[in-house]
Amino acid sequence: MLSLVVLVLLAACRPEPETAPSGLDVGRLEENQTREAQRTLVQEATRRPTQQIAAPTATPTRGLAVVTLPPTTPLPEVAQLPAFLSRTVPPLDWYTANFSTLEGQAQTLRGLGGELLIVQLMSLNCPNCLDQSSELGQLALRFTGDPNVPPITFVVLSADVDAPIEGLQAYHEVYAGLRDLGVNWVAGVASANLLNGLERSFGGEMINPTTGAVFVVDEGGTAYVRDPATFVDQTTLSDIIVYLSTRNPTPTPIPSATPTPDSD
User: Counting beta carbons within 10 angstroms of the beta carbon of residue 108, is it exposed (0 to 12), middle (13 to 18) or buried (19 or more)?
Assistant: First the structure.
């Protein structure tokens, strides 16, 4: 009788056989693992040394600076919004002037419109530009795929129209992994027409290649800018993104909707 009781108890304690995952489950698991591995590689690339400054034609050695941010950014009160939002610029000729991507394609900011644009002007021989691009890269990792914000395109343009393409490609090499994660990252060279339009609308400091100036363009084409020489951290840009995500801007009529080809 005792033996029978022991056998019953052993049978009750025997673990249930594990159900083999379906092909669909395995596929999803592998996809998630691959995506997480890509994200880890990008984040590891951000830990490159930051002591050296790139010469105009040298390969830049600064990587993305890893900054830990809160998991969510609360919507800031209007009275507390940064000065960034206090100055707006309508979409004039700077919005329709051409620039060249590093792939050799002609593009305009208007052509990228319909999405929130975060635009930076840079130079290879500009420490602040390197740091500013790093902030944008980390911001891109944070917001890409977030269902609570509209699609964001990050545009980083050389304000030096004669910058060597090889140097610019090296500058953006560390950000190549962002595209594999779904980040809209556009790199290129501003044309003389674009720079002239920015200077007329934003002021001469905007096109100074050594400032690393940043401005934000909403879906309607209105630009938001503050002192171009001021470094713009992730927290400020995060607040702006969250704020603009709650609005439905009406596109502003553009006096000259058809861009004229650049001769430069």
Answer: middle
The count of C-alpha atoms lying within 13 angstroms of the C-alpha of 253, restricted to the half-sphere facing its C-beta, is 1
Question: Which residue, 204, 225, 208, 210, is CA-closest to 132?
Answer: 210
User: Residue 81 has what pLDDT?
Assistant: 54
Chain-wide mean pLDDT for the chain?
69
Q: Which CATH number characterizes residue 221's domain?
A: 3.40.30.10
Q: How far is CA 27 from CA 21, 30, 207, in A?
A: 10, 5, 48
Amino acid of residue 240? I
Termini Cα distance of the chain: 98
In a domain, 60, yes or no: no
- Specify the residue for token string 């938001």: 224
Tokens representing residue 101 in the block: 């991507």
What is the distance, to the nearest Å, from the Cα of residue 6 to the centroid of all Cα atoms in its chain?
Answer: 65
Q: Identify the weakest region by mean pLDDT among 15-19, 161-165, 175-179, 217-221.
A: 15-19
The structure tokens listed for 98 are 């051409």
Residue 34 has pLDDT above 90, yes or no: no
Domain assignment of residue 233, yes or no = yes
Range of the domain at 206: 85-244
Residue 60 has pLDDT above 60, yes or no: no
